[in-house]
């Protein structure tokens, strides 16, 4: 009986997750379409709300479809209380759960990830701090950018 469930559930889950991923790509594309100051200015208004609510909801739904039910205990610190949110160790796809639960903050990511099809568009919508491993000044530039965003008094989303 469980083998039969697996034969039915696996393709069904894969189809649902693919649909959610493409929907997330569409939402990210709409939110960043003709974005003023692309990457240098924070998303504002409907664009920011669209990313925070819709993308967060889609990410939570995808994890639910995969069989994960996450329960939050306590209260997530607000942007003004904690402009930088630290999550560690960040070495798996579970990091996206933290992003969804905290309102889709900006992240620190390899610059190469931004050119990945579908995922790159979604990642770009989070306005990441891009780290280039080829640039010798990248570490210093990353720290400066995180500091600039943290001191923006709520203009930029939290940085994780």
UniProtKB/TrEMBL annotation:
Keyword Ion transport: no
Pfam entry (one): Acyltransferase
GO molecular function, one term: 1-acylglycerophosphocholine O-acyltransferase activity
One of the protein's GO biological processes: lipid metabolic process
Residue intervals passing through the bilayer: 7-28
Domain Phospholipid/glycerol acyltransferase: 70-156
Keywords (A to Z) from UniProt: Acyltransferase, Lipid metabolism, Membrane, Transferase, Transmembrane, Transmembrane helix
Coiled-coil region list: none
Predominant cellular place of this UniProt entry's protein: membrane
Localization annotation: Membrane
An example Gene Ontology CC term for this record: endoplasmic reticulum
Domain of life: Eukaryota
PANTHER family recorded: LYSOPHOSPHATIDYLCHOLINE ACYLTRANSFERASE 2, PHOSPHOLIPID ACYLTRANSFERASE
The family this protein is said to belong to: Belongs to the 1-acyl-sn-glycerol-3-phosphate acyltransferase family.
Name recorded for this polypeptide: PCAT2 acyltransferase
Species this protein is from: Myiagra hebetior
